[in-house]
Amino acid sequence: MKNTIVVFLAVLMVAPAFADKRGTVLRGGLGFLFPDANRFVNGGQSALNKGTSLEANYSREDETKSQDMTASLTWGNGQAGLGAGVSRVGTTLSEPSTSADTMVAQGGFAFGGGQFTLGGVYQHSLETGVVGQDVVSGQLNVNLGKPGQGWVLGVGASTTLGRATNTKTGTAALGYAFGSGLMVEGGYQVDDFADSANNYRYTAAAVYNSNAWYGAAQYSAVTQSGTHPDSVSARLGGIWGKVDLSAQVTKETYTGGDTTYGGTLRYVF
Fold first, then answer.
1. How crowded is residue 114: how many other Cβ atoms within 10 Å of its Cβ?
2. Where does 2-268 sit in CATH, by number?
3. 162 within 8 A of 68, measured Cβ to Cβ
4. Contact 52, 115 (CB under 8 A)
5. d(CA 151, CA 173)
6. Could you read off the pLDDT of 178-190 as tens digits, one per residue?
């Protein structure tokens, strides 16, 4: 597995030579159909980005004090996309005994001038002896207009690996991209097909991109085995040439819910 990761990262380092020099990527998106270039949720749509994106992401939960540090590199040329990232999560990131490391990779292709995209995402635990934490998913999207404008329909499915009974999920979303840079979407996800009546969520998201700034918001209405851990997220970023900075907050809206604060630094070329 380590050799595979090394080869994949080597491909990403070479890929910029074939990238569109404009470095135009989608920034800030928190949803499924219009995700931020460095969010690993829809491998198919990642193929529509044009450029290479190197990002550092940090977040911290207010109550639990859990922290997350992620470094990721993604590439796309409008026809194909690749990406890889490494994350560490824990209360003390400098202490391996109180943190956990994972890697994630994605790939995707666009067909018919970007009208159809197909891709996948793979998440793997880097902890020794850990089983049942890996997740593999696939995504298929139909862009009914030209990329960046018009109706978009997407579906996805995922499963954990290595468990006696693996958890399988399914996602469907419908969205619309306005020519102004505004994109909106709504989605439905089954979080566990073994008990789909009690494990599902509805989501609504919007993202706006301009040459100077970007912003995004998402609301998730969740049903989870009799509880309702709903949440709302917002992200706002500024762009200075090839560099952008953003701040993000996620608030769990139920009683006793935590608040997560974070920020990103990215270089696009």
1. 18
2. 2.40.160.40
3. no
4. no
5. 11
6. 989 999 999 999 9
The tokens of 155 are what?
Answer: 């579906």
Give the CA angle between residues 235, 147, 219 to the nearest 5°. 30
Please state the rounded mean pLDDT for residues 139-152: 90
Q: What is the spatial distance between Cα 15 and Cα 9, in angstroms, rounded to a whole number? A: 10
252: Cβ contacts below 8 Å, ≥ 6 apart: 229, 230, 231, 258, 259
Listed in sequence order, the DSSP H helices in the chain are 2-14, 43-46
Dihedral (CA of 8, 10, 12, 18) sign: negative
Q: Which percentage of the chain shows pLDDT scores above 90? A: 80
Q: Give tens-digit pLDDT for 16-36.
A: 444 445 468 999 999 999 999
pLDDT in tens, 27-83: 999 999 999 999 999 999 999 999 999 999 999 999 999 999 999 999 999 999 999
Prediction pTM value:
0.89
CB 15 within 8 A of CB 75: yes
DSSP per-residue string spanning 162-231? SSSS--EEEEEEEEEE-TTSEEEEEEEEES-GGGTTTEEEEEEEEEEE-SSEEEEEEEEEEEETTB---E
Please list, residue by residue across 135-156, b when 16 or more beta carbons sit within 10 angstroms of its beta carbon and e when fewer do. Answer: bebbbebebeeebbbeebebbb
Residue 164 pairs with which residues in a beta bridge? Answer: none
